[in-house]
Amino acid sequence: MACKRSRGGPGTPRRVPPALNGRSSGPPPPRRRRILHCSVWGEGVGTRPTIKRLARRGGVKRISGLMCEESRSYLQQYVQGLVQASAIHTGHSYRTTITAADVTHALRRSGTILYGFGT
């Protein structure tokens, strides 16, 4: 009688080489690094409708396309500086998570006071 060959589906047990007995050989693989990309600007923060909404709140009736680009670049620089200052406060506290208090401290350091978020 001929042996049936297994195709290696989900129910088939894995074959482990007899010398390893379930242990790995050699050093572990290097840790995967997180890919850093600018995810803030693709999710509606720097888009044209958002900038128009902010301008309407400030009393602007119409806004041109060049003004949208200019305000987007200014907003990106402002948020980047704020996040860097907040990260400095977080690092001096020996933490890795930026809290609302870190952001308010960074805003206070830049001369802007934000009420309602703790210290």
TrEMBL record:
SMART domains on file: H4
Residues forming coiled coils: none
Signal peptide coordinates: none
InterPro entries documented for this protein: Histone-fold, Histone_H4, TAF_TATA-bd_Histone-like_dom
Compositionally biased region (Low complexity): 12-25
Compartment list: Chromosome; Nucleus
Any Pfam family: TAF
Keywords assigned by UniProt, alphabetized: Chromosome, DNA-binding, Nucleosome core, Nucleus
Keyword Cytoplasm annotated: no
One Gene Ontology cellular component annotation held by this UniProt entry: nucleus
Family: Belongs to the histone H4 family.
Functional summary from the UniProt entry: Core component of nucleosome. Nucleosomes wrap and compact DNA into chromatin, limiting DNA accessibility to the cellular machineries which require DNA as a template. Histones thereby play a central role in transcription regulation, DNA repair, DNA replication and chromosomal stability. DNA accessibility is regulated via a complex set of post-translational modifications of histones, also called histone code, and nucleosome remodeling.
PANTHER family xref list: HISTONE H4
Self-association state and partner proteins as the record states: The nucleosome is a histone octamer containing two molecules each of H2A, H2B, H3 and H4 assembled in one H3-H4 heterotetramer and two H2A-H2B heterodimers. The octamer wraps approximately 147 bp of DNA.
Name recorded for this polypeptide: Histone H4
Lineage summary: Eukaryota, Fungi, Dikarya, Basidiomycota, Agaricomycotina
